[in-house]
Amino acid sequence: MPRFRPILDTMPAYKPGKAVTTSDGRSYKLSSNESPYEPLPSVVAAIAEGARLVNRYPDPGAVELTEALAGRLGVPAEHLALGAGSVTVAQQLFESVGDPGVEVVYAWRSFEAYPLLADLAGVTSVRVPLAGEDHDLDAMAEAITDRTRMVFVCNPNNPTGTAIRERELVAFLDRVPEDVLVVLDEAYREYVRDESVPDGLTLYRDRPNVCVLRTFSKAYGLAGLRVGYLVGHEPVAAAVRKTIVPFAVNQLAQVAAVASLAAEGELLERVERVVKERTRVREALIAQGWEVPPTEANFVWLRLGERTMDFAAACAVEGVAVRPFAGEGARVSIGDPEANDAFLAAAAGFRTS
Ligand SMILES: *Cc1c(COP(=O)(O)O)cnc(C)c1O
Questions:
Q1: Residue 290 needs a FRET pair 20 to 30 A away by CA distance; which of 47, 70, 187, 226 works?
Q2: Centroid of ligand 1 to alpha carbon of 214 (angstroms)
Q3: For residue 226, how far is its CA from the centre of ligand 1 (angstroms)?
Q4: Would you say the CB of residue 229 lies under 6 angstroms from ligand 1?
Q5: Mean pLDDT, 10 residues at a time, over the chain (353 residues)?
């Protein structure tokens, strides 16, 4: 019997959102915060064209995409590091800091990949409970010790949707020692409408220990191709580039991301439609009597406690897949209007059952 690291036995398997279908064929996947829109024709054309090159390895430096991103974001190319999705970039960060005994601090509940990546890297997770549905930044600052090498701040937070405002975040950053890396995970940045929520790109510039994670998976609709990136000062970006598995960002992902940046206006119109639907869904839920924390992401959060799994089952009967966290609550992505209506009907039925 081959022997594996003992930590593997203690790690829960990652549970991806699963589709559910009713007997009459209705299926609404609101479990993974994906874009409800099919890729733009221009992006499909770029992928089709790129398909003719897949006998070759991709450009390991992703030069074209890196330059397009640097221009778009107004950052030096040396400040960028790409990965096969921003989860992989996060994994590269864990690999970069992960010696035994090292601690990584993050809020909990937050993005479920953090504990898995920490376990895999052999570092110790220090989970700081949310205050209500928000990051408790005071407690997070107090949780930093001599052993802390990295802090994850998910803004807006997955799965609660809440966002940290500039004043609080800056005050927190000012308390973090310079040799501790702060990772601002901004997977949902494009959905933020509250102007007091800072753009991490403005915060990292004069802070060498702050970096930002972004992804093409959500607002840009490329979840299936796996491409995300980090923006940080050169030593941080260089560490991530060193820990990448060679050729991790494939050719189709690279060309699709470049085409998506070229079509950004159209994509951001879609984001705006999702934001409008977010407002409609939240207000409808509140009118039904639910408590729904304000959300700056493309999902809503319902703290259902012990009723969570029953709620997910009731949604599944209507063909709506949500993302339940047993004993805590359910995260429901904002989809197209038809999917959202199906979810609202399921939620209304659950309240009166
Ligand atoms: C979805 C998500 C990501 C993005 O993951 P990819 O690997 O880029 O698809 C990163 N962080 C958070 C918090 C997310 O919810």
A1: 187
A2: 8
A3: 10
A4: no
A5: 92 77 92 96 97 96 97 98 97 95 98 96 97 98 98 98 98 98 98 98 98 98 98 98 95 98 97 98 98 98 98 97 97 98 98 86
